[in-house]
Write the structure tokens for this entry.
Amino acid sequence: MDAVLRIGLGADVRLIDVLHRKAYRIVRLDGPELDCRRLLDLGLTPGEAISVVQATPLGDPLIVAIRGTRLALRRREAAWIWVQ
């Protein structure tokens, strides 16, 4: 999948491809509608700061920090979250 180039803003990347313990901002969710609605209900909304704080040795699940709490996300769910 090609990264989207936005002039002056940098490229969007999927949450599964980011460096751990670095802050990013959610740009969009791009996945199945019902699953993305669940993520929105959990507070993963565009504009919100998020960081990957831990991953298991096999990479599933990822532990993310958002809105002062930690959530465990499956890799397939994290792949739907695009950040900058």
Observations:
- The beta strands are 5-6, 10-11, 13-14, 24-29, 49-55, 62-66, 69-73, 81-83.
- The chain has one domain: 5-83.
